[in-house]
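Dear colleague,

Following up on yesterday's call, I've attached the two folding results inline so they're easy to grep. Please treat them as preliminary; we haven't cross-checked anything against experimental data yet. The first protein's sequence and structure tokens come first.
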Amino acid sequence: MQFISHQDQHLTLSDTAKPQLKTNEVLIKVAAIGVNRADCMQRQGKYPAPQGDSPILGLECAGTVIELGTEVDQSWLNKAVFTLCAGGAYSEYVAVDAAQLMALPSDLTMAQGAAISEVYLTAFGALFQVGKLQAGQTALIHAGASGVGGAAIQMAKRIGATVVITAGSDEKCEHAKALGADHVINYKTEDFVVYMQNHGLTANVIVDPVSGRYLSKNAAIAAMDCQIIMLAFLDGRFAEVDFALLLQKRISFHGSTLRNRSQAFKRQLRDEFVAKFYDEIANQQFDFNIYKTLPWQDAGEAHAILERNENAGKVVLLVQ
């Protein structure tokens, strides 16, 4: 089979054998691949695959199940699906744990399916599993025009929360507003702390891929018992913080990653997400927030779009 290999930060098409299935896995013929910043970091040598996962790039895809492991329910055969992958999605075929599959609704395209798993499950875990977001509370979502940000906006609004986002341009702010955000802040022209204080807003849950200098700023506008969930550290690995403020407000600070979680964790996350939001996906009540689709031969350009911070939403590769 063909797959996209990476060497010296360059992406090229190469040949390899099809994956050998474990008893709990299915083989998917890949039709579309969701592109994520983690893929860019892995290509750069900064985010190697966890031990036991495929070294091939790609954490999510949509496609058709063409082969089953011996323990897998026969009903999955020939089904269109979308799913997380333990690596390996940048290929014609990928082996996936059957318990993590989600059936692709008939009205959704493969591209839409490929844009869901990683960002929606990441946002769901941050907002609801860790953040315990409730109706009537306020969520502050940094990088609100990103794939994770767009998913978080829509799920938070669906359960009746107020949503505040930050983004790096007026265009991205308008994009987030179209997805349902109540308050949008261009961080390049306005300080989100000042904005929230002027509008009488405090955050119960903060989803933050920026970190660095944002830690103290988040604490300044946090509500009592605020949950801050750090997904990345785009502003840097280190920061100073006023611990008195953290203690005074009883702020909880969480580091959260999805890729290196256990298979059991990912299965449970999938099950909880499906129980809460699958009907909205099937009925297309969410915008799947696709910025651009490209043929998979243009994977290098897809990575460049993310690295330029150009995209508002997901970039998806189509396998032909």
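Below is the second protein, in the same order (sequence, then structure):
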Amino acid sequence: MLTFEGIYTPAITPYAADGSVDFARFAEVLESLIEARVHGIIIGGSTGEYYAQSAEERMALVEHARKVIGNRLPLIVGTGATRTEDAVHFAKHARETKADAILVTSPPYALPTELENAHHALTIDKAAQLPIMLYNYPGRMGITMGETYFNEVSQSPNVVAIKESSGDFNNLHLLACKFPNIAISCGWDDQALEFFAWGARSWVCAGSNFIPREHVALYEACVVEKNFDKGRKIMAAMMPLMNFLDGGKFVQSIRYGCELNGLRSGQVRAPLLDLNEEEKAQLQTIIADVKRNVAAA
């Protein structure tokens, strides 16, 4: 059973000039993450723009990732979909592709009750029989995973972790105190230090697409070395980037960060639009400062 520890990167999806998936550049993204020594790679996450891709594209990306990664790192596959049947389809494909785990979200727009949402997750679980990282992101899904939901899904031994992205410390405290069998993974970047203090041992962070070493440094300081004085210094150095990413153009910023790192990603897919020149210049300055200040921490 996969135990989630370390930095897990939701990989971006590069696109060619005609808007199609650029699989050669996608392989370059994956190789850069392996070289940077992150601890796992997620395909089909929000940062990968799964919501703007066809089912065929999503499955082709998973298959290509499995070929490129081999057994060098764990591969986690997102199953996010509004229809339970579609999520089950992606989960079954993940199993066929020998994924190491799946990411299970709430179905967006549908607004199920907590019991209905739990049934959604357990139906996916039954189809996949793989380790599950839940993904609680009410800002995108419209509902939150709460105590009733956790009581239901925690009955499955496959539910081993959760990417907690509500931004609500009450949910972090609930999970840490009442559901110790579900490993907490930080899913709210500017709260990473607090997550680690509450026992989280992993961080799903989009910024690790382009500054992976800095994210690994915070994980190692807090979790491996248990040196929270050092962790606070690293966190303080990274806060300007986190504040910028919270400014409303998250995916676009991650993709441009990759461009600055030599990873050509192409244009973001509609309905999103790329950063303007002023935003690009601002982000470039912030990233340079983060790298310098983390190195000095």
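For the second protein, one point worth flagging: The mean pLDDT is 97.

Best wishes,
A.L.
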